[in-house]
Write a structure and sequence with these properties.
Elements lengths: L6 E8 L2 E10 L9 E6 L2 E8 L2 H13 L12 H16 L9 E2 L1 E9 L2 E9 L3 E6 L2 E4 L6 H8 L4 H4 L12 E2 L7 E6 L5 E5 L9 H10 L3 H14 L6 E10 L1 H8 L19
Antiparallel strand pairs: 1-2, 2-13, 3-4, 4-5, 4-6, 5-10, 6-7, 7-11, 8-9, 8-12, 12-13
Helix pairs in contact: 1-2, 5-6
């Protein structure tokens, strides 16, 4: 039986679009403590995966996401809002850095902003939690892991398949706290009608193949149902780590949706060196 913690947001209208969402988190089959944390509430949807010992990791992830809570309830946020909230997260996690080992956390997710009158996702990522976009049957990873094995993949030293089995696959190169002074990556992507945003801790991709994640997102009718089922899939495949999943569905206004569906191309997740990545 799955001991999940689902939560669902009622659809809301912001910047000519409607959002609905769901979230689910579980400590997994092998751990007594859940060091993951999440924040869901328009216009911010985040997942954090703590590290540094049971109490320290849980405290770090909770403090990180709580630093963004003051943004919940707004129609949209600005880049400056997100930058200041991230600085607050760094300060909050820093307050518990005297513990040994020094606690830290990953942080990944999206916030709704407006660019030239058009709704966009401002994507934030530091560490190896992930943000994906599911659109018209295809799943694209937006965020890029800040990890030792990802660096090796980028250098061409190992393949993506080899990275899944590499002994350094758990080594994070950037985090909030844990002795890291690294900054997050940001991307700015237009919201597309009918898309799903998936934000998760690494407990999901560790266990569930990308084709299964894609199939679940394609078949589940609600964001809440998709989040809960993905957590169940991770547990059924071993559940070796904490697993947290946030799913956000977006629907644009009728006119905007018609224009969006008439476009010839589907935007893909940008490479980090492309123009879509933004400085905040």
């Amino acid at each position: 039986m799955v001991d999940a913690l689902p939560s669902t947001g009622a659809p809301i209208v912001t910047v000519a679009m409607e959002l609905s969402w769901g979230a689910c988190s579980d400590p997994g089959a092998r751990r007594a403590t859940n060091e993951d944390a999440y924040l869901v509430g328009t216009p911010v949807f985040l997942v954090a995966d703590g590290m540094g010992g049971h109490a320290g990791g849980a405290d770090a992830s909770r403090r990180a996401v709580e630093s963004f809570r003051s943004l919940v309830g707004r129609r949209q946020v600005s880049a400056d809002d997100m930058r200041r909230a991230f600085e607050d997260a760094v300060a909050g996690v820093g307050e518990i850095s005297s513990r040994s080992p020094a606690p830290g956390t990953t942080l990944s997710g999206v916030a709704v902003c407006e660019e030239r009158g058009v709704p966009h996702w401002l994507v934030l990522n530091i560490g190896d939690s992930r943000t994906y976009r599911f659109l018209r049957g295809e799943l694209d990873q937006i965020s890029i892991d800040h990890s030792a094995v990802q660096d090796l993949v980028d250098e061409g030293a190992i393949s993506s398949a080899e990275a899944e089995r590499h002994p350094q696959r758990h080594v994070i190169t950037r985090a909030v706290g844990a002795g890291s002074a690294g900054l997050p990556d940001y991307w700015l992507l237009p919201v597309r009608h009918g898309e799903r945003i998936l934000v998760c801790s690494d407990g999901l991709p560790k266990e569930v193949p990308v084709e299964v994640i894609t199939a679940v997102l394609a078949s589940e009718l609600t964001a809440s149902g998709a989040a809960q089922r993905l957590v169940r899939e991770a547990l059924a495949r071993g559940g070796r780590d904490n697993v947290t999943v946030v799913v956000v569905d977006a629907r644009l206004s009728d006119a905007a949706a018609a224009d969006d569906l008439n476009e010839d191309t589907v935007p893909r997740a940008p490479h980090p060196e492309e123009d879509e990545r933004v400085e905040v």
